[in-house]
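Why should sequence recovery work at all? Because a backbone constrains its sequence more than one might expect. Tight turns favour small or flexible residues, buried strands favour hydrophobic ones, and helices have their own preferences. The token representation captures these environments compactly. In the example below, the structure is given first.
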């Protein structure tokens, strides 16, 4: 049994080493800055750590070919023990594909960015409703933190498509602005749903600003990302600009300066057409 446990541990460690994409995530740098106040960020770092370890510990033997497992000289009892660490086969269409109607929604909910934002949004909503003396100005800040956790997805809209998917989008007869809108609108929808119990209008405004800036990185220098990982991006300068834009516009709307919402909407629309044209003329070798 000891060699089996060693093999499982080694597989889990190799899987955990692939989780370093958080170093290119916008929230990672923001959390580092807030770590100057450990009492405020201790829970968030604990949550991030649990999410990082979840895909590694869920099924560490899933990447080992089934044929190799069958060739191991194991007793039936040992083989049954190993099934605990292997991902089971799901017959038929996964439930996720039946519930979510579009490819983009299916991709986004399979990222750790969404998992972190979703868990944080639920806990923040419970905190709001069960804290009678909560400062009203804290509510939009909680909403914008949810947007921050999703903002790297806005910076790399084609990350989960892979190079083959990006080539298909590039060769599609659809205009570039429509492709970018199709990738961005589900992210706006997720933002509105997650922040509905908090403050959705500042959050949607912040996401519009994040998308307007993120189109550049999405089209010009896209990166690949695997499911159940944090999306990697480029914090300097695009991620930093995203953080500044989403917080400044979101806080302004939360304080009653509603003009920033249509301004963010116009900026997003202009960015759609500018980088939609860039997507149409992008070199196939750079995708």
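From this structural description, the recovered sequence reads:
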């Amino acid at each position: 049994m000891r060699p089996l446990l060693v093999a499982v541990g080694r597989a889990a460690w190799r899987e955990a080493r692939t989780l370093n994409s958080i170093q290119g995530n916008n929230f990672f740098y923001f959390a580092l800055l807030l770590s100057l106040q450990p009492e405020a960020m201790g829970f968030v770092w604990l949550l991030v750590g649990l999410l990082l370890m979840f895909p590694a510990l869920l099924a560490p033997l899933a990447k080992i070919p089934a044929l190799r497992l069958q060739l191991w000289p194991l007793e039936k009892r040992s083989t049954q023990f190993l099934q605990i660490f292997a991902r089971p086969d799901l017959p038929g269409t996964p439930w996720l594909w039946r519930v979510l109607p579009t490819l983009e929604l299916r991709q986004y909910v399979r990222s750790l960015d969404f998992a972190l934002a979703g868990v944080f949004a639920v806990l923040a909503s419970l905190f709001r409703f069960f804290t009678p003396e909560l400062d009203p100005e804290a509510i939009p800040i909680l909403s914008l933190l949810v947007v921050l956790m999703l903002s790297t997805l806005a910076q790399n809209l084609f990350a989960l498509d892979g190079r083959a998917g990006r080539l298909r989008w590039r060769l599609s007869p659809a205009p570039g602005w429509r492709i970018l809108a199709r990738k961005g609108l589900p992210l706006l929808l997720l933002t509105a749903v997650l922040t509905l119990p908090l403050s959705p209008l500042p959050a949607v405004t912040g996401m519009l600003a994040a998308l307007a800036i993120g189109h550049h990185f999405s089209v010009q220098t896209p990166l690949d990302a695997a499911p159940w990982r944090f999306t990697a991006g480029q914090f300097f300068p695009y991620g930093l600009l995203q953080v500044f834009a989403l917080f400044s516009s979101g806080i302004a709307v939360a304080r009653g300066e509603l003009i920033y919402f249509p301004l963010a909407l116009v900026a997003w629309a202009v960015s759609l057409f500018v980088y939609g044209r860039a997507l149409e003329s992008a070199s196939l070798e750079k995708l």
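A few observations help interpret the result. Confidence is low (pLDDT under 50) at residues 88-92.
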